[in-house]
Amino acid sequence: MTKKRLRTMDPINISDLPEPIVHHIMSFLTTTDVTRLSILSKKFFALWGSYPVIEFDQKRFARTYHGTLASMTKDFIQHVLNSIRQREINAVLSEFRVNANFELISVDSRFDTAILMVLKNGVTCMELNLGFADYVLPDMFASKTLHVLRLKGLHLDLCGLIKVCPSLTTVLLKSCVILKDAEFSSKTLREIELHSCDVKCIKIDGPNLRSFFFSSDKRDPKPCDIDVLKCRNIKYLSLNNVVNGGYWIEEHVYTLSELKTFVLNRCQDIGHIRICNDKLVRVEFRHCHALTSIEVRATSLESFAYEGIESAHGGMPCNITFLASKCIKDLSLKGAALVTDQWLETQLARMTRLERLKLKACNTLRRIKVIHEKLLILELCSCLSLVEAEIHTPQLISFTYRYGNANNMERDKMVTDQWLESQLAKMTRLERLRLKRCNSLKKIKVWHEKIQILELCSCNGLEEADIDTPQLISFMYHGNVIEFGKMVTRGSCIATLSMIQWTTYDNASFCKWRNMLSFFGHCKALRLICNYPKVYSFFSSLQYNTSAISQVI
Predict the structure, then answer these.
(1) Cα torsion through 226, 231, 234, 236, rounded to 10
(2) F-box domain location, by residue (predicted)?
(3) I need a labelling partner for 413 at 20 to 30 A (CA). Which of 25, 227, 301, 397 fits?
(4) Residue 466: CB partners within 8 Å, gap ≥ 6?
(5) Are 337 and 317 in contact (CB under 8 A)?
(6) Paired residues of 293 in beta bridges
(7) Which residue has the higher pLDDT, 477 or 42?
(8) DSSP 439
(9) What's the pLDDT tens digit per position in 469-497?
(10) Hey, which residues does 379 pair with through a beta bridge?
(11) What is the pLDDT of residue 372?
(12) Which of the two residues, 474 and 79, has the higher pLDDT score?
């Protein structure tokens, strides 16, 4: 036997690599590791000094520190200051990030000094995540190069901040206390997000603002006067936990003529809303429990989502009216109590371009007709009163059906063996089929030329499956041991079997399980999942005897 000669390659020294590549390698390291690397050679030290990103994480610093929280915080601040002083940066600094928790900690002037040094160096992106601190930015805070500012847990004057940073394009504030009313103008600002901030008034004049996100505190939402009517180019508007909603929201949606996306989430005091804007493409209403009426007039609307209360008794009785819905491609309704069989049939007839329909916890649906020429994706989930569904969708490629939740043990009356076989014969282009908690299924036949993904999950009444799907590349099963009459798939198919606890552990059970496994010998990989020791030990013994089993969990 001849020995193969291995070509030896000369070792590559990192210091010989081009500067951009070394900087890219440094981007995967922590600040501490980069600092250690810088002491290896003068060149590394120079590269470290020109590295445009500085990041400090108090949690990582604390791993090797022994002492009180107060002393550790003080030493961490000193570490930040020392690192910045030692760098002798000779290139523009692009990012400066600090993750720490300064809550109930007195932050001294050293941190101010560090921030001012970074600003002097021309930083373009600054991110300070300081927990729920009482920290206030230094009086000298100002920058002509700062483009992106992300702050969490600070006290600040937003209006003054915008004035002294004239190049800002993105501002993200989280859990901050805004000391004065935020009334300002900016020609550079393109995106602003306020998450759980304490502020009484926001008034912005920003001709180039594209995105505005506002969220009041979830635990203690407070009224806030919002006026962004002069930001005529806003394309994305999201309002969350607003407690003084009303006409002003309708006015904003109507007046902002370039608006593409409007999201209203957890706004508890809005009973009626009328949305009118012909440029709108996407509209979402989520958890606005006081809503009883939604009227939408948007000729360009492509996506609409409503999410109410998911419960056995249905959601809030909210009447949804579309005055122009021809262009809608994606319709998602969850917990919509007034969505009836007749309402759904009427809307489907009007929405001639619909491609995706998702209905979840719509418990007023009983006997539905889904007849549509363009529909590609259909999901019916937890519609507990649904007893019959007539589906005629020749273009459908994905169908998901789930009955109830894990605690609901009622037997589903709609999806039976005969119903499934009948629907599969109609859905000639179906590529994905997912059935979950369909407990009326007993002996199923899944014979289909196009299906590529098949999932059978927690169908507790299932006893036998006859599967002939020559294009199948992914199969997932969760439940009891069942019998297979046939299992035809691609050779590249990856199968996952997740088993529940067996009722008995005798020879008959093991033989039944071995027989089930024999139908997956042709698969590229077989993954077995089990949380029960007795079954797991049996799986482990099989792993050494069955080459198809690639993993036992």
Answers:
(1) -10
(2) 11-47
(3) 397
(4) 443, 444, 445, 446, 447, 484, 485, 486
(5) yes
(6) 272, 319
(7) 477
(8) T
(9) 999 999 999 998 899 999 999 999 999 99
(10) 358, 400
(11) 96
(12) 474
Rounded-to-integer distance, Cα 553 and Cα 539, Å: 9
Alpha carbon 188 to chain centroid distance? 29
Distance between CA 329 and CA 304 in Å, rounded?
9
Q: How far apart are CA 236 and CA 245, in angstroms?
A: 18
How confident is the model over 156-211, as pLDDT tens digits?
A: 999 999 999 999 999 999 999 998 899 999 999 999 999 999 899 999 999 999 99
Mean pLDDT of the chain: 86
Mean pLDDT along residues 530-552: 55
Question: C-alpha distances in angstroms, 548 versus 3, 478, 521, 525, 538?
Answer: 33, 19, 6, 6, 16
Which residues lie below 8 Å from residue 421, measured CB to CB, with a gap of 6+?
444, 445
- Bridge-partner residues for 286, per DSSP? 265, 307
* Rounded distance between C-alpha atoms, residue 501 and residue 530, angstroms: 8
Q: Distance between CA atoms of 56 and 97, rounded to whole angstroms?
A: 6
Name every residue whose Cβ is closer than 8 Å to that of residue 413 and which is 6 or more positions away in sequence.
387, 440
Q: Model confidence at 91, in pLDDT bands (50, 70, 90)?
A: low
Closest Cα partner for 72 from 82, 84, 59, 86?
59
Q: What is the DSSP string of 102-139?
A: -TT----HHHHHHHHHHHHTT-SEEEEE-SS---B--T
C-alpha 382/C-alpha 436 separation (Å) is: 10
**Could you read off the pLDDT of 307-347 as tens digits, one per residue?**
987 654 444 688 999 998 889 999 999 998 889 999 999 99
Annotate 307-336 with three-state secondary structure.
ECCCCCCCCCCCEEEEEECCCCCEEEEECC
pLDDT at site 32: 62
Question: Is pLDDT at 11 greater than 60 in this prediction?
Answer: no
> Helix, strand or coil for residue 286?
strand
The bridge status of strand 377-381 relative to strand 282-286 is unpaired
Cα–Cα–Cα angle for 313, 419, 447, rounded to 5 degrees: 130
DSSP string, 25-77: HHTTS-HHHHHHHHTS-HHHHHHHHH-SEEEEEHHHHHHT--S-HHHHHHHHH
Phi and psi at residue 212, in whole multiples of 5°? -135, 120
Do 440 and 463 contact (CB within 8 A), yes or no? no
Query: Backbone phi, then psi, for 93, in 5-degree steps?
Result: -85, 125
User: Distance of CA 26 to CAs 36, 62, 69, 433, 469, Å?
Assistant: 11, 22, 29, 45, 49
Amino acid letter for position 16: D
User: Hey, how many other C-beta atoms are within 10 angstroms of the C-beta on 63?
Assistant: 8
Give the pair of three-digit tokens for residue 150: 């992300």
Phi, psi torsion values for 130, nearest 5 degrees: -115, 25
